[in-house]
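Handout, page 2. Input:
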Amino acid sequence: MTNHRYFIVNKPYDMVSQFVSSHPVKLLGNLDFCFPEGIHAIGRLDNHSEGLLILTTNKKVTKLLFQGEIPHKRTYLVKVKYQVSQDSLERLRAGVPIQIKGGGYYRTSPCDAEIIPPPENLFVNGHETPEYIPHTWLKITLTEGKFHQVRKMVDSIHHRCVRLIRQSIEDLELMDLPAGGVKEIDETTFFRRLKISMPLSGS
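Output:
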């Protein structure tokens, strides 16, 4: 039986969600942490997105979490340029058309979306628009994950995403983990908070 390990990372801005790349980019291996052999990321964030990233040595987690029959919630804090109207917010909630690979369009499933106050004690990424430019913070919870879906959704209501932070996946939360921070989670807690069942075998 293999004793798998489970971690959450607060992925910083301008870092890719992988350990190896042929391009000169910042990698997860640049974090100040000694990860075990066989570690890999589950559910990637693009290099301009921040927040909760899962890392594990258990290769079954991807299928259990993102490829199973039961959808799992992901919650994001999203900063967009200018003020979002109530009508635009309702459109987001109902589902909007976004362009997908191949040039076609996909209408997103209904989601939870609300306008929130600026988050307190938020880590700075150094690449935001100046504060004097009007903006809105949104909290969006999805159960699907098309490529760049959240960015495309806010673009569909004519707002540009200037910051995107994944806050949680089900009950597994980023909480106060600082940018670049790593926290190991025990297996029982990890599966319980993600609302998935542990495999019968540890392999």
